[in-house]
Specification:
Elements lengths: L7 E5 L3 H13 L3 E5 L2 H10 L4 E5 L7 H11 L4 E6 L4 H10 L3 E4 L4 H28 L10 H13 L6 E4 L6 H10 L8 E5 L5 H9 L16 H4 L4 E5 L6 H13 L1 E2 L8 E2 L3 E6 L3 H7 L4 H7 L2 E4 L10 H15 L10 H9 L5 H16 L11 H4 L15 H13 L5 H8 L3 H11 L3
Parallel strand pairs: 1-2, 1-3, 3-4, 4-5, 6-11, 6-12, 7-8, 8-11
Antiparallel strand pairs: 9-10
Helix pairs in contact: 2-3, 10-12, 13-15, 18-19
Length: 449
């Protein structure tokens, strides 16, 4: 018995007595277990219940364990496969490893050997999960550093919904960060250790979409020489993100609706439904209610997707987020384009960024920061490193004469908001991206000293 054996294990053998013995032994080690007596039954079980470990016999009537491992490795790359056989040989071991097996166990073996295997697999999966956790921590959270009321309210909604399996619909203009927000929701959910699969509906040809997303059976069409798992099956146990869902063809809208209703998909050319455990997050920059009125988007699908709708405001409506986003995107650019002397954003540049209307939203800001990183060659970022149109004021905030706050008023409001959060002067200056001396001067100009 080991405290590390928190595993979901599937045992595959056509000998019922062996399956029963292994089920009892693995349960005693703390594993959650299921059994199957053929490769096809094993694959059907995996579709409904993803496993951490598949322990399979080599020789079975239907097909070999090597065949099963090859298919499991393709469909469920995070699952560890181990083959067991009474016909141990060097050739069999090589074939199993080439097919994707993690280990090879000659029969007969004792419970101590099985326990040693469970420890090894537990250690491997623990390392994988820790690596995934560290990658997630290194990746910027969508809300990191954002202080606008809109972002704070959105984070509150995400935190309430993330632990559930509710379908979500993100709406907003192009470039507002819907994909990163979907990833953030996935990372904050109980599915974080499972796959996050992204599908951009506009990048897959309509003739290929059904096969790519829902999969196809062998022989479904010319060239379909083997079964193919689509994006839904690849996301089993995790999250499927459908970006630009408003561009789905009517036939695909029907298939998506069926999954949302029944949690079942059907491969192209397949004869049986496949039950899956997948959370769906959708996003669009189109007005789905208008599309429903025009008859181009199914009303029933809209209401199924719209269990919870999150509208992401454009960047021009949450200008307080521009300074932290610019800093974050600058650091991201430096990962791609390292510099011995990391650049800094000057106050003049920050003023220009705050005054721009950002029609391309966060995506446009990202491109601007990448451009500046490349052009500044490690020195301070100045207006000369920004796109000419931005420096010329195209898309800038209107003046107070148009009934809209001036840049100075926007800056003062942002400074007052940060100061009102109870930070020390040093911390407030750091959040604002200016020096402490500059912050003291601005406070004096604002009459707050």
């Amino acid at each position: 018995m080991t405290p590390h054996a928190d595993l979901d294990v599937l045992i595959v053998d056509d000998d019922e007595a062996i399956v029963r013995t292994l089920l009892i032994g693995l349960k005693g080690m703390g594993c959650r277990t299921r059994g199957a007596h053929s490769p096809s039954a094993a694959l059907e079980t995996l579709r409904r219940h993803p496993a951490d470990l598949v322990l399979t016999d080599m020789r079975m009537e239907e097909r070999t364990g090597v065949d099963l491992i090859r298919e499991v490795s393709m469909l469920y790359p995070h699952t560890v496969c181990v083959i067991m056989t009474a016909f141990a040989s060097y050739e069999n071991a090589v074939a199993a490893i080439k097919a994707g097996a993690f280990d090879y166990m000659p029969k007969p073996f004792g419970m101590d050997q099985l326990q040693h295997l469970v420890r090894k697999v537990s250690t491997l999966i623990g390392l994988r999960r820790e690596n995934a956790r560290l990658r997630d921590e290194a990746a910027p959270d969508w809300f990191s550093g954002l202080t606008s009321p809109a972002s704070r309210a959105l984070e509150g909604l995400i935190d309430r919904i993330a632990p559930t399996d509710a379908t979500m619909l993100f709406t907003g203009e192009t470039g507002t960060g819907k994909t990163e927000l979907a990833r953030t929701l996935h990372r904050r959910s109980h599915r974080a250790a499972r796959p996050f699969v992204e599908v951009t509906c506009t990048t897959i040809a309509e003739t290929l979409f059904e096969s790519e997303v829902f999969g196809h059976a062998r022989g479904a069409f010319t060239g379909a020489v083997k079964d193919h798992a689509g994006k839904f099956e690849q996301a089993n146990g995790g999250t499927l993100f459908l970006d630009e869902v408003g561009d789905l063809a009517p036939a695909m809208q029907s298939k998506l609706l069926r999954f949302l209703d029944d949690r079942v998909i059907e491969r192209v050319g397949g004869s049986a439904g496949i039950e899956l455990d997948v959370r769906v997050i959708a996003a669009t920059n189109r007005d789905l209610t208008q599309m429903v009125a025009e008859g181009t988007f199914r009303e029933d699908l809209y209401y199924r997707l719209n269990t919870f709708e999150c509208h992401i405001p454009p960047l021009r409506e949450r200008r307080e987020d521009i300074p932290p986003l610019a800093t974050r995107l600058l650091h991201r650019a430096l990962v791609r384009y390292p510099s011995e002397h990391p650049p800094v954003i000057t106050e003049e540049v920050l003023h220009l960024l705050m005054s721009h209307d950002w029609p391309g939203n966060v995506r446009e800001l990202r491109n601007v920061m990448e451009r500046a990183t490349l052009l500044c060659a490690g020195g301070p970022i100045t207006p000369s490193h920004l796109p000419p149109a931005l420096v010329a004021g195209e898309g800038a905030v209107a003046t107070v004469k148009d009934g809209i706050p001036s840049l100075r008023e926007v800056e003062e409001a942002h400074i007052r908001k940060v100061l009102g959060m109870g930070f020390s002067m040093e911390r407030a200056a750091d959040v604002l991206g200016i020096t402490t001396v500059t912050l003291w001067r601005k406070r004096k100009e604002m009459g707050t000293t």
